[in-house]
Amino acid sequence: MSAASDRTPGLRVPADKRSFLASGLGIALFSSAVFGLSGSFAKALLETGWSPGAAVTARLTGAALILAIPAVPALRGRWHQLRDNWVTILLFGLIGVAACQLFYFNAVARLSVGVALLLEYLAPVIIVLWLWAASRKRPRVLTFGGTLLSLAGLVLVLDLTGAVKIDLVGVFWGMAAAVCLAIYFFITAKENDSLPPIVLASGGLLVGAAVMWLAAATGLLPMAFSTANTKLGPWVTPWWVSLAGLVILATVLAYVSGIMAARALGSKVASFVSLTEVLFAVVWAWLLLGELPGAIQLLGGALIVGGVILVRLDELRGPAPASATTGGPEESKAASPLEHANDVEPVP
C-alpha cells in the first residue's frame, strides 16, 4: 500500500494491518493455503481411478500452459536466458517438479494427505544431515536440536507401535519426495539474477510435463484417467472441478503468490512461512476428504514442524562467525548454502 493511499481521507488502515499486508505475510499465507489444497484435489481424482502419473501430468501440462502467458513477456525478448540456464531449468523440471510431485502423489495414494506431506517436509532435515556428512562439521545447536526433534516426530508419524496401520510403500514414496525436495533446494540455492522466477517456474513445469508425457508414451509410466464424479467434502462434483482446482488453485495461483511472497519477504523468510502449508493441508484434507491423522501422528507432525522451524530460525540467523569455524571467511560463507533456496516455491 502506498504512502499516498495511507494519507487518503476515509482510508484509514490500522498500522498493524498495513504492516501485515505490505510485508508480504498475507500473500505468503495465501500461497501456503492454496499449495495445501494439492493433496486433497489429487486424492479426489485418485479415488475415482486416476493414476498418480496421470494426475501429475495433467497438473503440470495445464499449469505450464497458463504460466507461459506471463513468462513470455517476462523474458522481454531475451531468449538467450533460456539457453544460458538450460541445465538449471532441466534439473528443476526433472527433479523439483516431475519427480517430486509424482512421488508425493504416489504417497498420497497410500497414506493420508497429512502424513504424506509431513514425510516430504523432512527435506530440511535431509539437507542438514547431508551437509553434516559432506563438511564433517557438526551443525549449530538450533539446527542440531531441530534435526533431532524432527526425527523424533518422524518416529511418531510412522506410529511404530501399530495403533495406526502405515503403508510402508507409501512411506517410501513420501521419503523419496523429501529427497527430491532437498535436491530442489540445492538446485535453486544459488542466486540467479539472469532468469526471472516466473520463467523458471514455467520452464520447469513445461519440462516436467514433457518428461511425464514421454514416460507415458514409452510405457514406463501407467496412465489412467477417469471421468467419474469426484467427492469433495459434502459435494459431488464433475472430475474437471477437482482437476481445475489442482491446476489453477494449487499450482498456478500457488506459484504466482509464492513468487510474490518470496520477493516481498526474501527467500528465507518466505520458505519459513511456507511451513504453514503442512497445517493447511491437514485442515483441507479433514474438510474435503474426511481425513485426519491419529493423535500420535498429529503429535509427531507437531514435532516435525517444530524441528524444521528451529532449523529455519538457525538459517535466519545467518552463517556462523568466521572465528567459530575451523576455516576462514570463505568457509564461513559456505556454511549457509541455502541463502536463496526458495526463490521459487516448491510444488508438493
Walk me through this protein's architecture.
It is a single chain. The protein is mostly helical. The protein has a domain of 99 residues. The chain has 17 helices and two strands. It has a two-stranded antiparallel ribbon. A hairpin with a 2-residue loop joins strand 1 and strand 2. The longest helix has 27 residues. The two termini are 31 Å apart.
The ordered string of helix (H) and strand (E) elements is HHHHHHHHHHHHEEHHHHH
How much helix, percentage-wise, in residues?
55-70%
Outline: globular
Calculate Rg over CA atoms. Answer: 20 Å
Task: State the strand order across the main sheet.
Answer: 1-2
Span between termini: 31 Å
Query: Counting H and I runs of at least 4 residues, what is the number of helices?
Result: 17
The biggest beta sheet reads:
2 strands, antiparallel
Which percent band covers the strand fraction?
A: under 5%
Structural class determined from secondary elements? mainly alpha
User: Total strand count, please?
Assistant: 2
Uncertain residue ranges: 1-18, 320-343
Q: Mean pLDDT score, rounded?
A: 77
